[in-house]
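Blinded run. Sample ID left blank on purpose so nobody reads anything into the name before looking at the predicted structure. Input follows.
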Amino acid sequence: MKKYLLILLSAGLLLPGPATQAQIKKELTVAFGSCNRIDLPQPLWPVIANDKPDVWIWLGDNIYGDTDDMAVLKQKYDTQFNLPGYAQFRAQVPTIIGTWDDHDYGRNDGNKTYPYKKQSQQVALDFLQEPANTPRRQQEGIYTSYEYKVGKKKVKVILLDDRYFQDSLYRDAQQVYQPNPKGDLLGETQWQWLQQQLTNSTADAHIIASGIQFLPQQHRFEKWANFPASRQRLLGLLASSRAKGVLLVSGDRHIGEISKMTVPGVAYPVYEVTSSGLTHPAAHNNGEPNDLRVGPLVNQKHYGLFRFREQGKKLLVTAALKDEAGKAIYAEEIEVK
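Blinded prediction complete.
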């Protein structure tokens, strides 16, 4: 047998090492979504599975817990975990990761004052099948990062926690959030971690995920723009870190949209894909102001998809919002730089 392998190697039919050229995956498919109720139909799991994602990212509101009772929260997570459609999806998708937003954190519009956040973190990590004794189990906050290969390129996924350290906001009589000029979203420890993740990164692309939207500023709901100092700090960090190919993803809004922004000091346009409405999109929302939006506002059930492709020395990605039939409602072709 050894002699036969040596003949193949000398003939150039096999390459030595842990992987042959055929085994080097030239594509990476990352699917993502948010706003998912256990008491509503969940028709999208087989549709998303048909895209054969390598990674699924939960973007928050993964369940609607809205409770101070951790037994209730755990029961809702367990129900979601064991739903037949989602169980089949878990069996088909190699990697499932995620962060949270307010409803799965435990309280609508919850922030750092939520008294059960330490307990809630462990219940959420149980749902995500986080191994015992990892740093994510020990730290305050659910933030973490992962790396995936696309041929010779690397894609880093950075999951932020926008709840655990979030300062308070004032909501007026018209239910409009008023900006907190000095308020913070991430907490200093998470900021320092994020700076290291970007500044020291050797990845060719970076997906940064948050439960709430990063770029849009005009709507009246939760968003990074309600914390202008944090939003500006993030944009400044994208510039100072010189991180390659940043793509932002978010949920929360019960709509889908793609925003595009020129960030001072960043050599490429920064895109944000918001995908929100796995089970209950805001069908009544036929339009709202967003000067950064490219393409339509999506008010039907949908999910988001990145398809990365190594092409020569380039890394390309198709960013799409897709409907219940798996068809692209809107897509952007992006060269990652």
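Unblinding after everyone has recorded impressions. The CA atoms of residues 125 and 134 lie 11 Å apart.
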